[in-house]
Amino acid sequence: MSIEEIIISWQNEILKIQGIKRKKYFDEILASYWSKPIKIISWFRRSWKSFLLQQIAKSIVENYNFNIQNILYLNFEDFRLSEYLDSNKVYDIVKLFSSKIAVSWKKILIFDEIQLVDDWNKLVRTIYELNKNWDYEIFITWSNSNLLSSELWSNLAGRFIEFKILPFEFVEFLHYNGIVVNSKYDYLRDKDNIDKLFSAYVNFWWLPEVFSISSESAKKSYVNWIITKVILDDIIKRFSVRDVSHLEKLLYFVISDIGSILSIKNISNRFKNIWWFAISENQIIKFLDYIKKTFAIYELQKFDWKLNKIFETTKKYYCVDNLILTFLSQSLLSDIDKKIENIVFLKLNKYYDNVNFARNKEWKELDFVVKDWNDYLKIQVCMELNENNKKRELWNFILAQQYMHWRNLLIVLNWDSKEIEYDWHKISVLNIIDFLLDLKS
Fold first, then answer.
1. CA torsion sign, 186 to 190 to 191 to 194?
2. Whole-prediction pTM value?
């Protein structure tokens, strides 16, 4: 097949693209259309980055009277392009596209999984710098540890806008199942169905490709592929890791202890106790950094509510997806508390730049602390609130209040949303579904 045929076949695919839109990302990326900076769509693999870009390309054709002939879409995971994974050859494709396929006027270049192209940075920078008349609108996608944000800054500093695409939120999961909730009344009208879907969402895989898989064994097989190929193999190949067993055990260990407060020394000691071998603290730090670069886990730092400072001696970790969490940790199969806490973190992480946790010297802990405009929001997460656990769940709010008058939010699975008072302090209580759907009580 000639390169012209490949280009046109992808143009035809764009015109045929169907499916639900991830509205937040779709609107944000489309709003940047026809601004000069390179648009970079990034994050964990299989989060529908390519599909989203194809939807945007189709929308531009349909809503901006844009000629499909002027869109060059190159997916470098397409086996038909395996002999073109070189910057000079890709540049030749761009020139051929411009001279033989595109018509006069502006053109859109979409380079999907650009990190697979040798010297990709030189290619993109050259096209950008030669784009004096603004003839090209450039979109690129990349995934995982193949291309790091630090490399983006060094290679394309000042030339790009980055959009990070995360797995499906609960509201998107409902959309996929044909349910739209715009108000509390919408929720109440379909409460039984939404609550049932939430139970599935807690244990579900939030990356879209698994939505069509009904077999539990097939889902597990898919997750196993994600863990071995997308997470571990990516790290092993990029960083030439030799101690694969140590790396794999560390990944399993951190995810098994999701939401727990850990220190590097603590992890090292636990390795000795569990597997009876030593792993150096430096190696743990290095491997954790590798795992974070795949976007499989997120690291939270400790916020000292007394000193209003961030300290790095202890950390908490959360997982990009609850099904990975369940698959890697048999201990979390029935641990709904940890899964709920993981869901809350991912929601916070999407809308706040810095999410931390807090604990004082008496080991009193706040699950999350976020800066909300010029104020701070303290957040606790629990299954239910009753007389037996009220002091444990609410007293930490009061302790922190001595040092800063922050707002208090308790997110609960089995509780109605309302405001309560505890020790003369106001605490907003939100049911987890109200929180995930941004519903007011």
1. negative
2. 0.83
